[in-house]
Each structure stands twice: as C-alpha cells, then as structure tokens.
Amino acid sequence: MATTTHPVDERLPLPRLIPLALQHVLVMYAGAVAVPLIIGRALGLPPQDVAFLISADLFACGLATLVQCLGFPGVGIRLPVMMGVTFASVGPMLSMAAAPEVGLLGIYGSVIAAGVFGIVVAPFISRLLPLFPPVVTGTIILVIGISLMRVGINWAGGGLPMLTKMVDGVPAAFPNPNYGQVTGLGIALFVLLVILALIKWGRGFVANIAVLLGIVAGSILAAAMGLMHFEKVGTASWFDLVLPFHFGVPEFHLVPIVTMCVVMMVVMIESLGMFLALGDITGRDVDQDALTKGLRADGVGTLLGGIFNTFPYTSFSQNVGLVGVTGVRSRWVTVAGGVIMLILGLLPKMAALVEAVPQVVLGGAGLVMFGMVAATGARILTAVDFRNNANNLFIVAISIGFGMIPLVSPNFFKNLPHALHPLLESGILLAAIVSVLLNAFFNGMGSAEHARREASAAAAASEHV
C-alpha cells in the first residue's frame, strides 16, 4: 500500500529547493547579523573581530537550523524552521559587556550554561501544552505578527528611527538622518508591489518565490540608484574557518549565568508559540513530544552558539511568516537554508554580498510576511467560540493590550527592578503569560489531549473561513 508523504517531509527538486532556501536566508539575514554587530561594537572590538563574530553567527545559524530541521534522536522538531540569535538576549549581554569582570568570555560562559539549562528543562516547558488552547495560541500568534510589523516598518523606513553611538564612553541617541526618506520608501513600495503582482499573476514556482524575486528586483533598483554598495564585498576574504573558542576559554560567572537562563526560559516560551503556529500553518500535529524535541534543539543551538563564538538561538518568526506566504511547507527548504548559512559563514565575500542588500528592500517584503503571521493568528481566532463564551473576548482583548506595551511605550517598565526587564521587554511573552493566566481563570485547565483536539478543530474550521 502506497504511503502519502506529508508536505513537511516532501523533498523538492534542486532547481526549486535552492531559490526557496535562499529566500529564507535573505529574509532572516538582517536580523541574524544585527546582534553580533551590536555586541561587537559595545565591546569595542576591532573591525576584523566584529567581522569574525558575524561569520561565526552565520555558521552557528546553519548548524542550529540543521539540528532543528533534520532532527536527531530526541532533538529537533523537524518543521520548516530557521534558527537565529534571539534579540531577547541583547539587553542582558550589553550589561555583561559593560562589566569589565565579565566581558566577551563571560558572555560565552553564560550562553553555554544557558544552552545546557535549556536542554535539561525542555521536557518541563513542553508540558505547558494544556495551557495553550486556540484562544491562547491565536492571540499569541496575532501579537507575534503585530510585533514583527515594527521590524518590517523600520526596514521600510531605512533602519531604526533613533541610532545610538558612544559619546565619552556613554551611549547617546540621535535621529537617523536616513529614516523615512522618500527614495527608500519608494523602493520598499516597489518591492511590495512586485511581490503582490507575482502572488496574483504568477503561477506555481514563480508565485512560491515571489518574495525572493521581489527582493532581487528591489536590489537591482537600489543598485541602479546608487543605494546598494559593494565595497565590503570587494575587501572581504573568500574563505575563513570558524573554530571553537576563537577568543579563548569561556569564563563562568554566577549572576550572568542566572540572567541568561532566565532569557532562555523567555526564548523557549516564545518558541513554543512559534512551533504551534508552524504546526497550524503546515498541518503537522505538534504534540508534547514534538515540542520537547523542538525546545531541546533551542538548547542545543544555544550550546553550539557559545562554543562557536556566538550567542543564544531561537526559531526566527519572520521565516514562519514566509512559510505562510509561499505555501511551501517542506522542512528540506530550511535544511538547504541552513546549509547556505553554513557556507556564508565560511565565505565572508558571499556573506558581504547578501549583507549589501539595503534594509528598505527587505522592508517591502517584511510587510507581506509579518502581516501573514498576524493573519494566521486571526484565522485561528475565527474558530474560537466568542458567541457562547464572552469571556474569550476578554482574554483576547486584555492579552493584546499587554502585548502592545513594549511596542507603544518601551519605557513603560523602566522603574521596575532591572532583573525583571527580560520578562517585561517582550510583548510576545507578556501576551503569552496574560492569555494563559486569563484562560485558566475564565475557562479552567484542560488536558494536553483536549488542547490538541481544540487546536485541530480550530485549524479545520478556519480552513473554511
């Protein structure tokens, strides 16, 4: 009897696989290189060391992605996931970088310890599945998409509206002179229109790589207008090895380790929401065992990050949006994306070429992809019973309100203890905590099997919306 291959496990021919994988890489690249740039500059490292941090990050991105997508015994969720350095770790690492007794080696020690911690606690985090019925997962995924829109909007604007530079050893903020320039906004709009045209009139494979083609078209336009520069490509070397412990033997300090373990808890709870979202998008049942493997891969990826001179890893939510846009659910696409990241880490010249793509180009694509994540959350919520259970309305409304706090008012919690900031600066985590607590208060606690049945029913019903 012939067995049907699930779309997640479908092996695509190479001519289709490579462009789809490259599309995933381009979508995550700006976020992937941002953290090593921030930390390297905060530590005052010379340019060649900052460049090495970027190469090491790309290499470790590839390793972590392969662990997550290929899967090994007990590790890896085997869904189309791209792994990258989490921004939740930036604040704590900047504090560590400012402490002379910690420094870069102390950061790596805390990252390694957090990776081991993540591997150990993964089974306990995965048992939280009963806390995530559709009213909770739909709300969290909706907040993920809305939170990501800030990233896409800033890309379209040309970066962050406010930049930071060191003045007499103290960080000072000043307006970004390139933010919101008409030329950049025009390029972002051009990319958006190209993607929409390809989605509407493209057929088959062309529609699947609409985002990639839009980015390529935007890059060509930006280069023709003199806004895409290739000086770094010319000066970058062709090959460079990424060796473990390049900067020396990691150092282990108690407070940084505890801090990074808290960050790891935040990352794993966010990842749990991402995995449930991917399960809904791909039609693959994500049970407690799958969640354990996926969360354990977060820990393994973070451990590898510390060993290979980089930082904590998590699944990148922007790539979840890309899966929704393209409709291509094969994990082998992200496996190929992981291989490309490995190659970019070993070939600095190729990495520099990808890095040369202006943020305004990515902005036009980001608005499509991140909006798709929010739409997925809204689609799940359409299957929630609001008519007979009005309490569900309060769960969604209040949770979204809490999730918006860090976006609307980043300084809202500034007077609370600094140790709480990793928990309070993530709108996704705030929405997750509040929605779980409100659901338990209004609707009580169900079993894992009941949560899975509800999720499956919501997914089936929302297919007809």
TrEMBL record:
Q: Name one Pfam family in it.
A: Xan_ur_permease
Subcellular location, record wording: Cell membrane
UniProt keywords (A-Z) are: Cell membrane, Membrane, Transmembrane, Transmembrane helix, Transport
Origin organism of this chain? Skermanella stibiiresistens SB22
Q: Where are the transmembrane segments?
A: 20-39, 51-72, 79-99, 105-125, 132-153, 179-199, 206-230, 254-278, 332-354, 360-381, 393-413, 419-442
Coiled coil ranges (UniProt) are: none
Q: Which NCBIfam families does the record match to this protein?
A: ncs2, NCS2_1, pbuX
- What does the sequence similarity comment in the record state about its family? Belongs to the nucleobase:cation symporter-2 (NCS2) (TC 2.A.40) family.
User: PANTHER family attached here?
Assistant: PURINE PERMEASE C1399.01C-RELATED, URIC ACID TRANSPORTER UACT
- Principal localisation: membrane
Gene Ontology MF: a single term = xanthine transmembrane transporter activity
What this protein is called in its record is: Purine permease
Question: Would you tell me the Gene Ontology cellular component terms?
Answer: plasma membrane
User: What is the recorded membrane topology of this protein?
Assistant: Multi-pass membrane protein
